[in-house]
């Protein structure tokens, strides 16, 4: 035991090639916007909201193919799916559907 106080495998700030993962600045706004859009689509459009979800998926896929931010596209997809699925699940369990 060397007594350095660090856990095995942790980065001590010197060498090792390990660093923190960089997140795109678009990730959080796209995630929040996707959550809002998915919630609104599920709440007001109900089953027609699937069209909105598919439109976001196609747009995000096109963004990635054009070389735009993959993190932003992932945030938009995750947000809209979580928002829409959340509203649909709440409606289902409350007996509205």
Explain this structure to me?
By secondary structure, the chain is mainly α. The chain has a domain of 67 residues. Helices cover 62% and strands 0% of the residues. It is elongated and about 50 Å long. The mean pLDDT is 85.
Secondary structure elements and pairings:
Layout lengths: L26 H19 L3 H17 L4 H24 L4
Characteristics:
97 residues, mainly alpha, 0% strand
Summarize this, please?
The chain is mainly alpha-helical.
The amount of helix comes to: 55-70%
Mean pLDDT: 85
Tell me how many strands there are.
0
Determine the number of helices (DSSP H or I, runs of at least 4 residues).
3
Derived from helix and strand composition plus strand pairing, the structural class reads mainly alpha
Q: What's the N-to-C terminus distance?
A: 61 Å
Proportion of residues in extended strands: under 5%
Low-confidence stretches: none
Question: Shape from CA axes?
Answer: elongated
Q: From N to C, what is the helix and strand string?
A: HHH
* Overall radius of gyration: 20 Å
Biggest sheet layout: none
């Amino acid at each position: 035991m060397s007594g350095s106080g660090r856990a095995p495998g942790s980065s001590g700030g010197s060498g090792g090639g390990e660093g923190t993962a960089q997140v795109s600045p678009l990730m959080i706004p796209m995630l929040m916007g996707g959550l809002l859009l998915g919630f609104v689509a599920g709440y007001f459009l109900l089953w027609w909201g699937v069209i909105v979800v598919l439109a976001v998926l196609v747009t995000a896929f096109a963004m990635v193919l054009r070389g735009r931010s993959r993190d932003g596209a992932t945030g938009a997809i995750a947000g809209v799916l979580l928002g829409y699925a959340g509203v649909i699940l709440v409606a289902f369990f409350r007996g509205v559907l």
